[in-house]
Amino acid sequence: MGQAARGRVRRTFGAWDRTLFGHVAGRSWPAAEPVLPRLSRSADHGLLWFGIAAGLWAFGGPKGRRAAVRGVTSLALASATVNTLAKSAVRRERPLIDTVPLVRRLPHQPFTTSFPSGHSASAAAFTAGVALESPGWGAAVLPVAASVAFSRVYTGVHYPSDVLVGAGLGVGAAYAVRGLAPTRDLVATPARPRVELPARPDGDGLVVVVNPSSGAQSQLVDPVRQLRTLLPRAEVVLYEEKAGPLSEVLEVAAAEAAARGGVLGVCGGDGTVNAAVAPALRHRVPLLVVPGGTFNHFAVDLGMDTVAEACGALAQGHAVRADVGRITGESGGEPAYFLNTFSLGVYPELVRLRERWSPRVGGPVASLLGVAHVLRTARPLRAVVNGRPTSMWLLFAGNGAYRSVGLAPLRRHDLADGMLDVRIARGGTFARTRLLATALAGGLARTRLYAAARPTSLRVTGLPEGTHMAYDGEVVPAPRSLRLDKLPEALTVYRPLTD
Questions:
Q1: Under 8 Å CB-to-CB from 66, ≥6 apart: which residues?
Q2: For residues 48, 375, 399 and 440, what is the CA-based torsion angle, rounded to 10 degrees?
Q3: Which of 14, 34, 409, 424 could make an SS bond with 402 (beta carbons 3.0 to 4.6 A apart)?
């Protein structure tokens, strides 16, 4: 296409753009006048989307939390791309608003260039990110996003093409984020090594302990009812503190399940599931994990978000073997086990602060406050790791290799790979600032402050008195010396299989 032809196309497209803008500006929209300008202002700086994300996090369950994180991440990428690259590349002036009624104009007119629309990019990015994780929540957010995008033309601050291109960039940002951190539907859940177990469609032989303290009391009424409806022959035990420690109740339940030739079930969060590991290993019974806590990391890695999915796995007899991480104090005593992660350093302190503050301000806010407090006050932990003296902010060990973004572990492909995923964030001069900056830049693998390895065991000695360790979200005092290793394929767990 020659230069003259390209010029004609640009003039034709520009005329269409201005004509369509004029139609919107000149038409009367009585029902929209009290709504759209306010909605447009509410989306300034992403505040509307952050508010929706907070609601999804608080009330949307596991899918809602994942959707909120993906939506906000997609929004951040779209906003950065539009405001730093696209707007500076195409310096289009804002439309003339002489034909837009005063009642519809924004009190503060934007001062940046017009093309593309940042509000539309953010709205589309957030909605597409949410939809890629949870189509249901995405459909719920879509009308709000479409209204925000249309409001930018309605209030006279953008041409229609600004909105369309901005929305396209937003959707592209959401897919770019999915390329970096695939959604659950793109990553196969661990399906090996499979175990042949009897199908139990009515729950015969299942003894399942439900821990109400893992979540809100009102939320646990539904899991209990679902278990009794979907698995009518199962024995459902609602744990109460007066019955004694949870570990003892699970021990009795495991013994009963073994006597029946059945299954030990546990409904709760990761800490509750962790408490069931030792009884299940001792009595050699398979474990049914029913998601009932706040995060349910192990259940999600098994491919289960809901009670119905767990019950379906039991009904069909689908199960796999999983590794178990083991913590052994070198002074003796019973070992502790972990299914997800183990850590020393700042993370145990963060968990302690979150647990202390969350009853007053809620879990998400408590987590943010805890991070701020730890970054301000924490000091490196000094210990000897595999014979080498080390100053470190954090020692992390995953039960299996995790996919991750920066320091944050996301999910595992394989629950029986025989490896520990060990990561150490070292101390040093300005290490806290340098590590944070490097993590944000995505360069952890290239810094001397960060080490990663995939061993089968790890020895840590010389821990100071008062050191705490965290495993599967539980924080306890650490021994002066300890050893981490694996029990390969030691635990049989149910999980849905689709192939």
A1: 133, 134, 184
A2: 60
A3: 409
Which of 71, 41, 215, 54 has the alpha carbon at shortest distance from 134? 71
**CA proximity to 19, closest of 121, 167, 161, 165:** 161
d(CA 304, CA 496): 7
pLDDT value of residue 407: 52
Phi-psi group of 146: left, alpha or beta (phi > 0 → left; psi -120 to 50 → alpha; rest → beta): alpha
412: left (phi over 0), alpha (psi -120 to 50) or beta: beta
Q: Confidence band (pLDDT; 50, 70, 90) for 304? A: confident
Q: Which pLDDT band holds residue 2 (cuts at 50, 70, 90)?
A: low
Q: What percent of the chain has pLDDT above 90? A: 43
The Cα-based distances of 74 to 178, 442, 490 in angstroms read 9, 16, 39
pLDDT of residue 335: 94
Q: Say how far apart CA 130 and CA 143 lie, in whole Å.
A: 13
CA Rg value for the chain:
27
Among the listed residues 372, 375, 369, 344, the one whose alpha carbon sits nearest the alpha carbon of residue 356: 369
Q: Give dist(CA 267, CA 238) in Å, integer.
A: 9
pTM check: above 0.90: no
